[in-house]
Amino acid sequence: MVQDLLGALSSFASKYLFWVDRYNITKTDIAEIIIISFLIYSILVWFKQTRAWNLLKGIIVVLVFVLICAIFQMNNILWIAGKTINVIAIAIIIVFQPELRRALEQLGQKNFLTSLFSFDSQKNQERFSERVTNEIVKATYEMAKVKTGALIVVEQDVVLGEFERTGIALDSLVSSQLLINIFEHNTPLHDGAIIVRGDRIVSATCYLPLSDNMGLSKELGTRHRAAVGISEVCDALTIVVSEETGNVSIAIGGELYRNVDAEYLKGKLNFIRKGAMDVARFKLWKRRMKNVQKNDKTSGE
Predict the structure, then answer these.
(1) Of 202, 182, 168, 187, which is closest to residue 140 (Cα–Cα)?
(2) Taking CA atoms, which of 20, 69, 96, 138 is between 20 and 30 Å from 219?
């Protein structure tokens, strides 16, 4: 069967691609091209679904810089780059050891290929339903009224499996009643964060990395630092309800936006729901909203 498939591909290539005959491309060459293409595609998907995606973009910038240096024959910079590349490669392996180990573990899973290609069919779909947006907003401000502390992480493109595994698996539909019950004082699941993926709460009591940003206000507690911390390593949007003041804040892209109202939060969640949210667009959207508010105030005066 494999031989027949390769034969058909070779015949197609020979018939429609003149350079196949010109360069004597064989069935083995075609098979190698397919395998290498699949491996590159798999690696890119893995990068996209982990924190390594930002690292990949940084590596591309460095490679472009080195290429420019090679074109203009900047030999000193090329010498430094050649001496440091091995150290950088080892450092990457050390830093992303957990992700690499899980990637190798996934190779033995039955649903590996399914999970690899599943996102293509869902690419143009909404990340979650409008009902989820309404339930999250409703729960957030009901908890804010009674000063119930909460930490809700809404996942985007980067899969938060690493942090999901630190908590207790739930896999429950999002509802305002469930969210309020989870964060109720003295309940088993109230401590830590919950992670929302699609229409479901996948995990509760999750541990998040704390931000070491010295620019954050000293009056902010652990929840706010955790919200900023998770937003520094992925593209998730995190909602925080302060237990002391009842104020609602959101964190994305390493920045904290404090004291937001229900309409503001709903607008952000709808932006995410439609698959339109990234850090750059978020900041652009925020500036536009400020301009609109200023214009409204000016016209009101």
Answers:
(1) 182
(2) 138
The predicted-structure confidence for 210-224, as pLDDT tens digits, reads as follows 998 888 888 888 999
CB under 8 Å to 255, separation ≥6 — which residues? Answer: 228, 231
pLDDT band at 105 (very low <50, low <70, confident <90, very high): low
Rounded to two decimals, the pTM is 0.64
Strands 150-154 and 193-197: parallel
Q: Tell me how many domains the chain contains.
A: 2
Q: Which domain holds residue 64?
A: 2-122
Same domain, 138 and 109: no
Q: Residue 179 sits in a domain of what CATH number?
A: 3.40.1700.10
| Concatenated DSSP letters of 33-101 | HHHHHHHHHHHHHHHHTSTHHHHHHHHHHHHHHHHHHHHTT-HHHHHHHHHHHHHHHHHHHHHTHHHHH
CA-closest candidate to residue 66, choices 54, 48, 84, 51: 84
Grade residue 108 by pLDDT with cuts at 50, 70 and 90. Answer: low
